[in-house]
Amino acid sequence: xxxxxxxxxxxxxxxxxxxxxxxxxxxxxxxxxxxNYKIKLKHIxxxxxxxxxxxxxxxxxxxxxxxxxxxxTLKKDGLYYQYFKIANAKNTTVKVALLSKIPFIYTHEVxxxxxxxxxxxxxxxxxxxxxxxYLFINHWKAKSGPESRRIISAKKLLHRIHEIGSDKNIILxxxxxxxxxxxxxxxxxxxxxxxxxxxxINDVLHTSYQKQRASQTKFKENSFYNLWYxxxxxxxxxxxxxxxxxxxxxxxxxxxxLKHYKSNTIHSLQERYLFHKRHIxxxxxxxxxxxxxxxxxxxxxxxxxxxxxx
Length: 310
Fold this sequence. Notes:
Strand content: 25-35%
CATH class: Alpha Beta
Number of helices: 5
Helix content: 10-25%
CATH architecture: 4-Layer Sandwich
Number of domains: 1
Shape: globular
Largest sheet: 6 strands, mixed
Order of helices and strands: EHEHEEEEEHEHHEEEEEEEE
CATH topology: Deoxyribonuclease I, Chain A
Distance between the termini: 8 Å
CATH superfamily: Endonuclease/exonuclease/phosphatase
Structural class: alpha+beta
Strand order of the largest sheet: 3-4-2-1-16-13
C-alpha cells in the first residue's frame, strides 16, 4: 500500500467566495479563468498519476468543488479515487484534503484554534485487513511567521493523538513547513526562534530520538519516527528555497507503524519535468500585478510517498 502527500500549490476553483488570494479571483485581469484552471488540473493530475498512491493527502485545495474537479480529471486519465474528503468545516483560504482508493470509517477535523489563520487538521480512520489505521493530514503555518505558531499546531495534534492512544497505527503527513531537522536549520534563522530552540516537529512530536534507518530503529515510547531518516541525506528534500533543499513535507509514523513500513521506500517524486534548471517547476504567475497566470508549471513542492503492508 502506497501512501503519499502533495502540496498542490493553490488549487482554486472558478467560483468567487471572497476568500481568494487576489491572483485567484476568477475571470479578472490575472486570467484565472477556465483555460488556466483546466491546465492546472491537468498538470496536477499528471503528477498524482505518476505517484499512483492508494491514499494521497493533499494541501492547498480551496474547496470541495476543486477537489471533485481534480478527482474527475484523474478519472479521465485512468486513475480513479472513489473516496475523498476535504477539511472544510472552517472557511480558510486553502484546506487539506484526501483522495483514496480505500474506503475510510470516518473523518474528523481537528481545530487547531478558532482563528482563520490556522488550518484544520484532517483525521481519517481506515480499517485494513481488520487493523485500524489513523491518518492526520497537516498544513502548518508558513515560515513567514515564528516557530511558536507551528508549535500551536503540533500541541493540538499531539493532544488528539493522546485521546485516541499513541500506541495505535498512526501516520502524520503533509506540509509541516518544518524540515525533519528543523531544530538544527532554524537556529540560522533567528527571526523564527521565539521558543528557546524548541520546535513543533522535533520537540513536541519527539522525532529527534530515532535517527537511524528504519530497520535499525529501536522502540522509543511516546516518540514518532520521521521516515526521512530511512533514506540517504541527499534524497531528503521536497522543496527548494533560495537554492537550498528542504524536507518540509513529511511522513511521520508511530512506533506501532514501524512494523508495517516497508524499509527504504520513502522518497519524493523527482521526475525531470518537475524541475526547471535547479528549481522546482512551480505554477507560474507574473511577478508584478495583476500577477497573470501563464498556464505553465506544477507546484513548488514535490510529492512525498512511502509504502506499507498490512
